[in-house]
Amino acid sequence: MSELASIDPSIYEGLAAFRLALRRFLAFSEAATSAAGVTTQQYQALLVVKTHPAGAIMIREFAEQMLCQQHGAVQMIDRLVAAGLVERSHSPTDGRSVLVSLTENGEALLEHLASQHVEELLKQESLLAESLKRLRQISRRTAPSG
User: Fold this and answer.
1) Which of 30, 43, 75, 95 is the most buried (most CB within 10 A)?
2) pTM reported for the whole predicted model
3) CA–CA dist 100, 83 (Å, integer)
């Protein structure tokens, strides 16, 4: 309990400012993805597929990146395939493995949403940076020497 009492009140202010910036960004993301006809989780899924070094990702790796079970990943991929945003193909090196890659529509949607998200992050940059800077300064001041 003494640890709680020793927290500098300005730490709470820094945490609150950081969470405000995050909430603003997440609210923006929810609105932008909804307007584009996808969920925020589907947008994240498109980012996972796009950023895989091979340009296509195995379902097992996709599930790991999305922090979900393989059956949940398959269901999500099914919805993305139905929406025309991703496609499945068999691995050229292992016919049992299924790869997932973006379609042209998926690429176009992702580019549109990513540019909006970068713009919004840059709008929140000063609040995010300032709150992190404040927390860093406070933690240095209050850190026990040893």
Assistant:
1) 43
2) 0.84
3) 14
